[in-house]
């Protein structure tokens, strides 16, 4: 009898501790939401009143295909070139500010190390070492230059013409059944070989 009473008291204490932990967690969550929305570093950026609380509002606009209209015709005219659309989401529609952000050298988060298959093996995408990243980027950057991409235009046009010709032929022979995804994949592979 005494042992079952003792177990009951232990369960009651465990329940009270669990309830207290859950209550503290909920209060912390509410505090974090309110702090991020109205007291944090982004709190001075204008935007729709409830948007700093959650990304749900802007996500709903996107879900129904109304996001771009909402941003272009309602948000930017009302709030300007810098608008807060979520707790940690800011839309910038000022070309000079965007250029400044894109050319600034921000440090990569240490979380990139966790994405590597091997901690010692660095890659261009997962390296946080600026020197390593700069060396690797310098090697591949010519492949993304405007001049090189423009030189591929003739090849791309040839591949597209071949693809369109093949689609026309297949539609004449087979009717209306055609695996366009497969044809585009073949076009991409043939174009690169």
Explain the overall architecture.
The protein is mainly alpha-helical and 193 residues long. The chain folds into 4 domains: 1-40; 44-104, no CATH class; 109-150, no CATH class; 152-192. The protein is built from 8 helices and 2 strands. The chain has a two-stranded antiparallel ribbon with strand order 1-2. α7 (153-174) runs antiparallel to α8 (180-192). The protein is extended and about 80 Å long. Pfam families: p450 (PF00067).
Key structural traits:
single chain; 193 residues; mainly alpha; 4 domains; two-stranded antiparallel sheet; extended; metal-binding; iron ion binding; heme binding; Cyt_P450_sf
- DSSP helix fraction: 55-70%
Number of domains as seen in the coordinates: 4
- Strands, count: 2
DSSP summary: helix tally? 8
Rg, alpha carbons: 28 Å
Q: Kindly report how far apart the N and C termini lie.
A: 82 Å
The secondary-structure class comes to: mainly alpha
Order of adjacent strands in the largest pleated sheet: 1-2
Poorly predicted runs: none
Q: What is the molecular shape?
A: extended
> What is the mean predicted local confidence, pLDDT?
85
What is the H-and-E element order?
A: HHHEEHHHHH
Work out the strand percent.
under 5%
Major sheet description: 2 strands, antiparallel
Pfam families: p450
Cofactor: heme
GO molecular function, one term: heme binding
Organism: Gigaspora rosea
Q: What's the structural blueprint in terms of helices and strands?
A:
Elements lengths: L1 H38 L16 H8 L3 H13 L2 E5 L2 E4 L2 H9 L26 H11 L5 H6 L1 H22 L5 H13 L1
